[in-house]
Structure formats: structure tokens, C-alpha cells
Amino acid sequence: MTVYLNGEFLPRDQAKVSVMDRGFLFGDGVYEVIPVYSRKPFRLAQHLARLDKTLAGVRLDNPHSAAEWTALIGRVIEQAPSPEQQVYLQVTRGVDSRRNHAFPAKVTPTVLIMSEALVPPAPAQCAGGVAAVSAVDNRWLRCDLKVTSLLANCLLRQLAVDAGCVETVLLRDGFLSEGAASNIFVVKDGLLLAPQQNHLMLPGITYDVVLELAAGNGLRYQVRDIREAELRAADELWLSSSTREVLAIVELDGQAVGDGRPGPLFRRMYACYQAFKSEVMHGG
Ligand code: PDD
Asked: Among 115, 168, 183, which residue has the most ligand 1 atoms within 8 Å of its CB, making it the best to mutate?
């Protein structure tokens, strides 16, 4: 397993970061997760654009141009064993000489790129859907930034795992924000509803793909705030993320969503998503 760390390609077990790295001490870093199909990174330009925004949002200069990122990511992909991968990249503010909350005057960011096999959701999950729990969204107010300080997300996701579920659906002030590590969609009476992007949710790359596919395939949709009551009365619930693609949530807090099976709109979207992916893989 080869990783890229600060200018070098090296085996993962030899890639080491200082204990004085602000990523380690403060979670002072940003990241991206990019799915790779047949060794082709999916929506790379969009992931790099979001990275740029996150870096600006935490006052870090982008250490690489888009062309440099593309080349580095390409080399990591080449060297990984599986054609289906998830590339993880991380930029931290770098290594300081002492622990101090304020930014050091001069510091070189730490840059890591690594890749793992992409394990798509099991066929039974794609066909039968998954269960989720809900919880109060107690994260900070910059959830639009893809930062590595993910303790709140981890604690929230663990609530799902503890309940034998796959995701935690988050509610803030009575409105749906997103999942602990995914975006959430609601279907009611044949209409697809997506929460509008603001500082309370991550602008998901897969979320954009879902809405583009909805528009391109004649699915009616609206982007707007979604109340908790609408979430609870949904005919269908979906989650989306780079590693899970689109999945139907068929149970929320132990209650069936709709008739407890993936609904007709989900099945259409799932088919569109798979078709779109295979177009991209085959150079379309
Ligand atoms: N997470 N919202 C949150 C909080 C997320 O962590 C993610 C993805 C998403 C979906 O974004 P995208 O479609 O761009 O993957 C939404 C990644 C996969 C992770 O942290 O591993």
C-alpha cells in the first residue's frame, strides 16, 4: 500500500507524522474522500473545488494546483491494487514547535493522499434498504466545511451502530440537516425533497449528482428546508455519499419508512446512478 506524504511516495507503514502536527493536536485539517471506479476518479474536479473552499474556510492556502492534485492522486491510484478505490486526501496546518491554539507564523502544511479499496454497499442493502436512527445535530455551525475534526460526527454515527443501524439522521432546531456521514433526501407524494445547502450541512458531491440525475430524468424535485414532521411522514428516505452512493433508508427509529421497502423513486434513482457511473467508467 503506497501513500503520498509531503512529497514522497512510500509504503503506508513507513508514512509517519509528528506528534506536533496540528492535525493530531487540534484536528486542524481538511479532507476529501473521492470514489474511484475502474481507476478513474469520479467527479474529481468537483472534489477539488470543494477542497479549495474548505481550505479557504479554515484560512489555509491550497498547497497544490488542481493539476498537481490530479497528478498526485493519479499516481496513488495507479499504485493501489484494486481498480475500485476510495482516495482519501488530507491537508493539515502542519507541524508547530509548541502546542498553541493560535496559528504558527510560519508553517508548512502536511499533505497526505492514500487509497483503499472501495467496498460498495452490499447487494442486500441496495435492494432491501437500511435502517437509521435520528439524533439532535450537536455539531458546530460550519458543517459546510469538510474538516478532519469529526468527533461529533463519530459520536453521532456510533449511535446508529449501537442500535444496529447504518446511519444517524440529524435534526437541528426541528429541521433535517444531513446524516452523520451522508446527505439525506425525502420523497413525499412523488416529489423528491433535498435540504438546501447552507452552513449546517456538507455540500455533498453525490448530492449534486442525485439532483442532476433527477433533473435529467424527469423526476420532480424541490430544494428547501425540510421539517422533522416531513421526515417522519416520508414515503421514502435516501442517503447519499461518495462511498455509499445512494441507499434507501427503510426504517427510522424503529418505524417503517413508507411500506418499509425501497420505494419506486429510489429504484429509478439507483438505476440512473449505476448507469451514470458506468458511462463515466467507460469514458462517457
Ligand atoms: N463523508 N455529509 C457528511 C457529514 C459527510 O461526511 C459526507 C461524506 C457527506 C456526503 O458527501 P459526498 O457525497 O461528497 O461524499 C455528507 C465521507 C464519505 C467520509 O467522511 O468518509
From this structure: 183
Give the other-Cβ count within 10 Å of 216's Cβ: 10
Q: How far is the CA of 196 from the centre of ligand 1 (A)?
A: 16
The 10s digit of each residue's pLDDT in 1-37 is: 899 999 999 999 999 999 999 999 999 999 999 999 9
Q: How far apart are CA 8 and CA 1, in angstroms?
A: 13
- Determine how many CB atoms are found less than 10 A away from the CB of residue 251: 16
Q: Which of 53, 146, 188, 277 is catalytic?
A: 146
pLDDT at 281: 81
Nearest to 146, CA basis, from 207, 227, 84, 228: 207
Question: Which of 3.30.420.10, 3.30.457.10, 3.30.565.10, 3.20.10.10 would CATH assign to domain 123-282?
Answer: 3.20.10.10
User: Is the C-beta atom of 168 inside 6 A of ligand 1?
Assistant: no
Question: Does 146 participate in catalysis according to the annotation?
Answer: yes
Cβ–ligand 1 distance for 170 under 6 Å, the answer no
- What distance in angstroms lies between residue 97's CA and the mean position of ligand 1's atoms? 32
Q: Nine-digit cell at 99? A: 502546542
Q: Edge to edge, what strands does the sheet with 29-37 contain?
A: 8-11, 2-5, 110-117, 85-92, 29-37, 40-41
CATH of region 2-117, choose from 3.30.470.10, 3.90.1180.10, 2.40.110.10, 1.10.230.10: 3.30.470.10
Ligand 1 near 182 CB (within 6 A): yes
Cα 281 to Cα 167, 205, 256, 277: the distances in Å are 28, 17, 35, 6
Torsion on CA atoms 212, 215, 217, 222, rounded to nearest 10:
110
Q: Is the pTM of this model over 0.90?
A: yes
